[in-house]
Structure formats: C-alpha cells, structure tokens
Design brief:
The complex is a heterodimer of chains A (129) and B (273).
Chain A (H helix, E strand, L loop, with lengths): L9 E2 L5 H7 L12 E2 L4 H8 L6 H19 L5 H15 L2 H30 L3
Chain B lengths: L11 E7 L32 E5 L2 E7 L8 H18 L2 E3 L4 E3 L1 H10 L3 H11 L2 E10 L1 H11 L1 H10 L8 H31 L4 E4 L7 E10 L3 H14 L3 E9 L18
Antiparallel strand pairs in B: 1-3, 1-4, 1-5, 2-3, 6-8, 6-9, 7-8
Helix pairs in contact in B: 4-5, 4-6, 5-6
The chains are: A mainly alpha (129), B alpha+beta (273).
C-alpha cells in the first residue's frame, strides 16, 4: 500500500458551475426544429471554454518554473530562512503557469456565463419558430 | 407569460425522457411516489415542481416555467443538472438539451414523445443500463516540470547555459527553454493520455474524449459505464491516482448520458477499441 491514500472522490454534477457548464450546457438530445431551444450562443461558449494557451507567455512561465524548481533543489542545503526567501522570491516572480491557465479558464467561464445570459435575453424575443 | 396559467397550460420546460415507472419518486406522477401530497418534490428551473408527462412506455420530466426564469443561466443550469442527477439515479433517462421549451404539456406529447417514440425507446434501452462518468486529469505543474527536467537531460543542459545570465538578455533563449518544456510536456501528455484512456476505456461501453481545456490537462473525457461497473471504475480511478502522483483528478458522476444522447447514437455504443 502506498503511504498516501489521496482518495479521488466522485462528485455530483450540480455541485459546481464549472462542471455544469463544461459537461451539460451544450450536451443532451436536441429533438427537432419544432421545439424552442431558448439558448443561442452555445457555440461561442464552447469555443471560449476550449481556449488553449500556447503563447510566448506560456513558454516564459515554463522557463521560470524550471528556474524555480532547480533553485529549490539547490537550496535544500541552505539554512531554512534562506530557502524560504529563495522560494518566496521565485514564487512571487514566477506565479506558476498552472495558476495562470486556471485563471484563464475561470475567466472564460465567467465571460461565457455572461454571454449565455445575454444570449438567453436575446433568444427570448427571437426563439419563436 | 404570467404564473396564472394552470399546470401544463403555459410554457413547459422538458428535462429529459425516462420510463414512467422509473421516474424519481419525488416527482409528481412519478413511480414510487407515496401518493397524496408530496412535501419533497424536485424543484425545477425557476423553482416549479417537476412533473411527469407520460405516454405509453415513455415519460417526460417537465416543469412549468416562465421563460424569464431561464435567463438566470447558472441557477437554471444547476436546476437542469439537479433534475437529471435525480433521474439517472432512479433509472434510465435520455437528457434533452438545456433550454428545451415547448408550448404546454400537450406539445410534450405531440412534439416529443409521440413522433420520436421508437428512437426514444431504443435510446432508453441502450443507455438505460449505463451512467456517464466524467474525468478531468491535470498535471500538477511543479511535479511534472520536475519529472521532465529529471527525464530529459536536454532541458537541464539548456537551463545550465542560461544560469547567471540576466533573464532580459537571455530572452529568446528562455523562450527556447520554455518551448522545449512545452514540447516535452506534449510528448508526455500524449503517452499519459493514451495510458489513462486505455485503463478507463476497458471498463466503458463508450468513450467521448474531449479537448483538454488548458496546457496542463491530460484527459478531459466522459465515459459511458454500466451501472454495475461503476464500483470497478471508481477503483480504476484510484489506481490511476496512485500510479500518477503528478496528476490531479476531478471525477464527476453519475451523470445522465449527456455526451451519448443523440438520435443516431446507437452506433456509438459498444466497446471502444
């Protein structure tokens, strides 16, 4: 048995807006043209959710991540305060590409949500078949 | 649209189609209801109670809705998900697209249940024994970069060359290092994704591999899994987590088979190679 037993818990869909947007919004059976589907703009949302960050910024963040991790390795022998200082500086500077990516996805979910609201507002007038 | 319409007489929101005997017990008109007054009905979009509109072997889960209420997108989406979460726990269900509205209960029968009865029956038969499980696997950045640097001497060498050089002066060289990390990450991600999809796919009747949402995401898939195999799938997820301490897993379900419901979806079923 491994020492760490980090159990991966299964969570229900309705607990998180992120999951609901990603897993449910543009999924499910579309019956036919006679049924009014009150949402437009779903395609826009889907595209927003799938932003893949592959930019110079990402590469620079990766380079900083290498700096930071190599620094951490080397600082293991330093007195504790120096280690903390090094790590603090590196962290503060680098931030972390993962956090950046998460923020971007979070932002796009937020933007997408707003667009859905707008879309629903617009759709309401124009959704009569 | 006002709230003064009789139930089923105004606009009707349709969540999905189930078997009348397998609707959640707290749905009005649903199977297993204790009869009489229900004090714990499932709340639909806008807070209205969810009802069952049945025709033959099919039952639509519906509620009265003021189309204005659908505007509150996040709340409405959660309500949609909540109703279908309850439905898939109770039995077979084919989820309809979020925001499906028809003009009253008569239209539920005339537009949905009657014209599509054969295909809905077939879908309920095919999908009913299954649930959908969603898996997102993402690298922990520090853990994966550490592994990549350890595994690929070229990365460490490039980093050594930049040591002591002002980051501004080495701008393009640093971009080059980042590109190398990204390329190594891509190779690693392809391998890990193949491995995880293979491990989980063994236990699934169908797999829908989605696009990763960010550069750290390895797997963003949904899996159609027999109800009787969900426990084994849970165990397999645990095994993936143990084998990959550098990967964080987000595991959601049981879901209605959202990604596997289309009118011609029967050909998607079956083992995935």
């Amino acid at each position: 048995m491994p020492a760490t037993s980090s159990v991966v818990r299964r969570t229900p869909s309705s607990s998180s807006l992120y999951d609901v947007l990603d897993l449910i919004l543009d999924k499910g059976l579309v019956i036919d043209a006679y049924v009014r589907v009150s949402l437009v703009g779903i395609e826009i949302l889907t595209i927003d959710l799938r932003i893949v960050i592959a930019s110079v910024d990402t590469y620079l963040r990766f380079a900083e991540a290498v700096d930071r991790l190599v620094l951490e390795e080397k600082s293991k022998d330093l007195p504790e305060f120096a280690q903390d200082l090094t790590r603090g500086v590196a962290k503060g500077k680098a931030g972390g590409a993962l956090e950046g990516a998460k923020e971007s996805v979070g932002d796009s979910v937020g933007r997408a949500k707003d667009r859905v609201k707008e879309a629903i507002g617009r759709g309401e007038e124009g959704d009569e078949e | 649209m006002t709230g003064s319409e009789p139930p089923g007489g105004g606009t009707t929101y349709v969540y999905g189609v189930t078997r009348p005997g397998a609707a959640p017990p707290d749905v009005e008109g649903g199977g297993g209801a204790a009869g009489g007054a229900h004090d714990a009905t499932v709340e639909g979009v806008g807070g209205a109670p969810v009802r069952l509109v049945a025709r033959g072997s099919l039952g639509a889960l519906v509620s009265d809705v003021d189309p204005e209420d659908v505007r509150a997108a996040s709340r409405s989406l959660r309500a949609h998900a909540r109703v279908l979460d309850a439905a898939v726990r109770a039995g077979p269900v084919v989820p309809l697209r979020f925001g499906t509205l028809v003009d009253g209960d008569d239209a539920v029968v005339d537009r949905i249940l009657r014209p599509h009865s054969d295909r809905l029956d077939a879908l309920l038969d095919d999908l009913g024994p299954h649930v959908e499980l969603a898996v997102k696997a993402s690298y922990d950045e520090d853990a994966i970069v550490r592994q990549l640097v350890a595994a690929e001497p070229a990365l460490a060498a490039q980093h050594e060359r930049l040591a002591g050089i002002d980051p501004e002066a080495a701008y393009y060289e640093r971009i080059r290092l980042g590109e190398q990390v990204a390329a190594a990450l891509d190779r690693r991600r392809d391998d890990d994704a193949d491995e995880i999809y293979a491990a989980l796919g063994e236990l699934a009747a169908a797999v829908n591999p989605g696009e990763p949402l960010d550069p750290h995401m390895v797997v963003n898939g949904t899996f159609l899994v027999r109800r009787t195999d969900v426990g084994a799938f849970d165990d397999r997820i645990g095994a993936v987590a143990r084998d990959h301490p550098e990967i964080r897993l987000r595991y959601v379900g049981p879901l209605a088979p959202y990604s596997f419901s289309s009118l011609d979806s029967s050909d998607e079923l079956g083992p995935v190679g």
